[in-house]
Amino acid sequence: SDSSFATVVGNTCVFQGKWSFEVYLRSPGVVQIGWCSHNSDFSGEGNGVGDTANSFAYDGSRQLKWNVQQAAFGQKWMMNDVITCCLDCDASTISYFRNGLPLGTAFRPIPSVAYFPAISLSFGEALLVNFGATPLRFPVAGFRPLQAPPSDVELLRGSFIMHSWFHVVERIHLSRSLAANVSGEAAGSFQMRSLEESDALR
């Protein structure tokens, strides 16, 4: 993050079922990981996920959970930890896992509204978020990733496209190599012809 305290909100919301996403910590500092509703306002100085109504977050750096007010929760996280954030819309709960081990339920009950995944982080902090584009490192039984993994058909299609692209690139390199050879042979032929013409004039 290049901002003093930046917030990122996903563009997909859920309102029923059980959902999760993973955050790979690339630094151990102040980060608030959780969920928010569409009307959560983070425009105020220092406001992040959990600082406003209908937003909920966990910060392992300070071992706190946030929903307008703060309370002790969880374990102190470290760089390279994987934090799993789980939302159970049917049971109205939010829970967390650290490297696959449960930290417990942080919030119960939460309002029955649609929720977006959201993260706030301080200046200099870095992380990666996996919504399911690649298999989750620590999947939680019963919870689905926000982003469905590619189907077998999509994987085959992607493999075919990549193979075709590599074939095209290979043909381009071959064509350029042949063109360079032809150009070199033509230059050599022209030089030989020039020498022959010069000898003929003597």
Describe the protein in words.
This protein has about 200 residues and is α+β, with helices and mostly antiparallel strands. It has one helix at about 150-200; strands spanning about 5-10, 20-25, 30-35, 55-60, 65, 70, 80-90, 95-100, 100-105, 115-120, 125-130, 145. The strands form two sheets. Strands 1-10-3-4-5-6 form a six-stranded antiparallel β-sheet, with no helix packed on it. Strands 2, 7, 8, 9, 11 and 12 form a six-stranded mixed β-sheet that branches. A hairpin with a 4-residue loop joins strand 7 and strand 8. The mean pLDDT is about 85.
Principal-axis shape equals elongated
Please report the number of helical segments: 1
Low-confidence stretches: none
Task: State the secondary-structure class.
Answer: alpha+beta
Order of SSEs: EEEEEEEEEEEEH
Q: Largest beta sheet: what is the strand line-up?
A: 1-10-3-4-5-6
Query: What integer value in Å does the Rg equal?
Result: 28 Å
Percent strand:
25-35%
Distance between the termini: 77 Å
User: Helical proportion?
Assistant: 10-25%
Brief summary:
Helix content is 25%, strand content 32%.
Feature tags:
1 helix, alpha+beta, 6-stranded mixed β-sheet, 202 residues, 6-stranded antiparallel β-sheet
Give the arrangement of secondary structure elements:
Blueprint: E1 5-9, E2 18-25, E3 31-36, E4 55-59, E5 64-67, E6 69-72, E7 82-88, E8 93-98, E9 101-107, E10 116-122, E11 127-130, E12 144-145, H1 152-201
Parallel strand pairs: 2-12
Antiparallel strand pairs: 1-10, 2-7, 2-11, 3-4, 3-10, 4-5, 5-6, 7-8, 8-9
